[in-house]
Specification:
Helices cover 36% and strands 17% of the residues. It is built from 21 helices and 22 strands. The longest helix is centred in the middle third of the chain and has 24 residues, at 192-215.
Amino acid sequence: MKQLMLGNAAVARGLYEAGCSVASSYPGTPSTEITEEAVKFPEIYCEWAPNEKVAMETAFGACLAGKRAFCGMKHVGLNVAADPLYTMSYTGVNAGLVIGVADDAGMHSSQNEQDSRHHAIAAKVPMLEPADSAEALAFTKLAYELSEQFDTPVLLKMCTRVSHSQSLVETGERVEKQLPYEKNIAKYVMMPGMAKRRHPIVEERTKQLTAWAETAPVNRVEMGGTALGIITASTSYQYVKEVFGGSVSVLKLGMTNPLPVQLIRDFAAKVDKLAVVEELDPIIEDHCRALGLEVVGKDVLPMIDEFSQNLIAEKLGGQVHAGRTLDTEIPNRPPVMCAGCPHRGMFYTLSKNKCTVLGDIGCYTLGAVAPLAAMEMTLCMGASVSAIHGFNKALGADSAHRTVAVIGDSTFMHSGMTGLANIAYNQSNSTVIILDNSITGMTGHQQNPTTGYNIKGDPAGKIDLEKLCHAMGFNRVRVVDPYDLKACDQAVKEELAADEPSVIISRRPCALLKQVKHKPPLAVDPAKCVGCKNCMKIGCPAISMRDGKARVDFTQCVGCGVCEQLCGAKAFYSTAKEA
């Protein structure tokens, strides 16, 4: 049956058809929907792991047991999972193991723009790169075949455009796969003496995979005009075809590690001029240059951001389309925390107290933007907790009494606990604020180990943050409601004043959760409003100024009451009184 399917959904369908039995992932845009779609198939056990390293090790355990397995993550998540990945290259697999990684060229929802092909090269594992949803499904199934044929984990590299676009897919039936587990110490116990004997196997496997890539159907030549030949892959292939059609010849690579040699040389010999079109780093281009080929690439095409049809046309001589313009300019809409966001009250408190705030990865990172501007560092998952320890060790007591770290509940479980252990063990006088909104918010409301529910929404193990922090050695652990500005202010002042490490848990569920019951929206009495704009200091999108008076958009307001606490004129009132 043929149907339109999201790229990520097509990968999930490929997992189902390939007989995948276990999928363990950590949510990260643009990869999240793969596992969210996979969980719809009862034949696949799916879970959200605390982090990507755990997810990959879980998937490895499942494949070791003889069941085909999968783990999914975004590009920066692969950094976290690199530890097991590089050694799994040595051990190989039992049943097939596929690792889905989604890159984010253009940084639509990421802190960097790294190219995951480097991990495939460094780990010496094969990588397949689909260019549409049909290939996403087909390459997922092929990845399992390659994994078992060549005894290796296989990386399936998606990107934002392929993950989140739809194209036509033809679905098939599921084929179950079960291999026996056999004890093999020499293969799976990577102590130095045994790992030394596995490395030559990895190098030989790379040679065999390179030979396979020479004639593999995923690497195909589409001959057209011979004045220009383009080597490309992934979404760049779609742009090339849209710009040039059959007027140029194309070598479309579906396997981007290892890259073929003779296939590229033969293609280059058929065209007058050779170009490589690839987003981000010049990996294919450098490979071509190493083969002694003259090639146009990053000398004209950028190494940053997403490509587009017009960019490729402009740089390689195609027709640039002007497109249509609007009669009126659309104003910018910078991202802001939602109306009623529980983080807003805490960030207002930190800003008011002129705290130095070391931040982390999550929707609360928006606390760095105006008008709150209450965050001064964001690096990677868990870094806020580790960094405040180093920051305070470097600067001493003065720093400790004005600096805090903020981290979300899911990010804390991901990689904040080890940083907190370091604070407890090495005793810096640091204050850590866990912004507990009872969900993994930034990636679309996935459960995590603190919520008490699993990926299907069924009851699951629930970690008690207060008890966990006490068990890690913290005497001072307190919980506040971020809607209560007075309580937040008192907690921040008291914990910063203390001469020992402390944890504040700012707890209030995300305002967008379906189970959260909101109060009636607030309104402003224009007769009482003095136009002081104190209510604007929290940056709530439901509040605006009109004709010198504050105004509340009742379609956005959730009645949190934070703005009401800032109004000295008592101009805010609940619309429940009007009902």
